[in-house]
């Protein structure tokens, strides 16, 4: 299935990178070796790596995660140079150059910055360089935080138009419950219906150093597949896991692609922070959901929050059900003066037909 996948994003989590006294050099060398082999086979690889905060924790001899955003930012600033140095040393063994790319959500929200990021990745890949991506924790505030590298890997996959996202973890895939605590835990080989997945699975477990457990991986995978990108969550400690996956071996959990979102729709739905809520009447709801019409001001019952023209807002039915999310063509103070509040080209539907 993936033999023709030319551009691949690989995500590595903190737990895989954690060694007894610092970063796990053996694992980093192993990942570098596998990626170098993929490159030799003519594939382009972007690596999204956690580990900066972990490296900072180890450097200072801490035995806990940071309590506050400020602590996380400080530890990331300390650890990021260590992390990149380890990757550079490992990739150098195989004659591969690397580049550091640090992103925030703000870099991906606007079309201009989104395209600038894409162009940077294109140039790096043209040079034969492996981009190593992390969130720019040292400058991130709550408003521009992506929050975890699972979701970052999905966003990066969309930016670079990847043909496959591989998320490596300490588990062998997605299980219906925590396999460390439940010997009867069952591996989910394929995910086609996300509703069925959440019905049978418990994703409440979190890791000691990572920002989230399997829940964030599932959340990220479901984002990528809606842009048409297949996702595999697999065990990072499996022998030659990357080569085996691209050669067609069934490992881990495969999330099948759906491709229901354009790049613009993806940015609206997953990257733009909603600044307000708009509640619409039954007629407007039917026009939007069943016929793909724009949201007219006359169909708005009321709204919450203060927002400006160009801000993202959530649209709800008068019963309080989320219908979708879009970019407002007016400020909250101008709603009654404008004919069109959200144009259909700037709206992403979430609710199914009514």
UniProtKB/TrEMBL annotation:
Claim: Repeat is one of the keywords in the record: no
Highest taxon listed in the record's lineage: Bacteria
UniProt-annotated binding residues for substrate: 50, 137, 149
Pathway per the UniProt entry: Amino-acid biosynthesis; L-proline biosynthesis; L-glutamate 5-semialdehyde from L-glutamate: step 1/2
Principal subcellular localization: cytoplasm
A Pfam family that the UniProt record links to this protein: PUA
Chain positions recorded as ATP binding sites: 11, 211-217
Annotated Gene Ontology cellular component terms: cytosol
Subcellular location: Cytoplasm
Catalytic activity: L-glutamate + ATP = L-glutamyl 5-phosphate + ADP
Domain PUA: 276-349
Protein name: Glutamate 5-kinase
Entry EC number(s): 2.7.2.11
GO biological process, one term: L-proline biosynthetic process
EC class (word): transferase
Family matches, as NCBIfam families: proB
Function: Catalyzes the transfer of a phosphate group to glutamate to form L-glutamate 5-phosphate.
Gene Ontology MF annotations: ATP binding; glutamate 5-kinase activity; RNA binding
Gene3D superfamilies with a match to the protein in the record: Acetylglutamate kinase-like (3.40.1160.10), PUA domain (2.30.130.10)
Record-linked PANTHER family: GLUTAMATE 5-KINASE, ISOPENTENYL PHOSPHATE KINASE
InterPro entries recorded: AceGlu_kinase-like_sf (IPR036393), Asp/Glu/Uridylate_kinase (IPR001048), G5K_ProB (IPR041739), Glu/AcGlu_kinase (IPR001057), Glu_5kinase (IPR011529), Glu_5kinase/COase_Synthase (IPR005715), Glutamate_5-kinase_CS (IPR019797), PUA (IPR002478)
Record-linked SUPFAM superfamilies: Carbamate kinase-like, PUA domain-like
Keywords of the record: Amino-acid biosynthesis, ATP-binding, Cytoplasm, Kinase, Nucleotide-binding, Proline biosynthesis, Transferase
Gene expressing this chain: proB
Family membership noted in the UniProt record: Belongs to the glutamate 5-kinase family.
């Amino acid at each position: 299935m993936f033999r023709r996948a030319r551009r691949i994003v690989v995500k590595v989590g903190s737990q895989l990178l954690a060694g007894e006294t610092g970063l796990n050099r053996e694992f980093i060398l192993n990942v570098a070796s596998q990626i170098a082999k993929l490159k030799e086979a003519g594939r382009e690889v972007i690596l999204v790596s956690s580990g900066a905060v972990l490296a900072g924790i180890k450097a200072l001899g801490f035995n806990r995660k940071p309590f506050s955003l400020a602590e996380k930012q400080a530890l990331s600033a300390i650890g990021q140079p260590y992390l990149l140095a380890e990757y550079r040393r490992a990739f150098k063994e195989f004659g591969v150059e690397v580049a550091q790319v640090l992103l925030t959500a703000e870099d991906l929200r606007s079309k201009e910055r989104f395209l600038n990021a894409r162009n940077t990745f294109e140039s790096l890949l043209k040079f034969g360089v492996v981009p190593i991506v992390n969130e720019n924790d040292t400058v991130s505030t709550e408003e521009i935080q992506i929050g975890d590298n699972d979701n970052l890997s999905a966003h990066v996959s969309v930016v670079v138009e990847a043909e496959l996202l591989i998320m490596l973890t300490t588990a062998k895939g997605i299980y219906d419950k925590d396999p460390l605590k439940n010997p009867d835990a069952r591996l989910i080989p394929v995910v086609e219906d996300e509703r069925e997945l959440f019905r049978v699975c418990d994703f409440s477990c979190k890791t000691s150093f990572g920002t989230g457990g399997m829940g964030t991986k599932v959340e990220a995978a479901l984002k990528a597949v809606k842009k048409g990108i297949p996702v595999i969550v697999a065990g990072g400690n499996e022998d030659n896991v990357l080569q085996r996956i691209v050669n067609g071996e069934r490992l881990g959990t495969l999330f099948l692609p759906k491709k229901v979102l354009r790049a613009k729709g993806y940015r609206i739905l997953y990257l733009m922070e909603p600044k307000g809520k708009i509640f619409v009447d039954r007629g407007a709801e039917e026009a939007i959901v069943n016929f793909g019409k724009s949201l007219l001001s006359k169909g708005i019952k009321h709204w919450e929050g203060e927002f400006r023209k160009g801000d993202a807002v959530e649209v709800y039915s008068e019963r309080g059900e989320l219908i979708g999310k879009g970019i407002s063509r007016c400020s909250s103070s101008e709603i009654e003066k404008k004919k069109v509040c959200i144009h259909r080209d700037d709206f992403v539907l979430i609710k199914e037909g009514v």
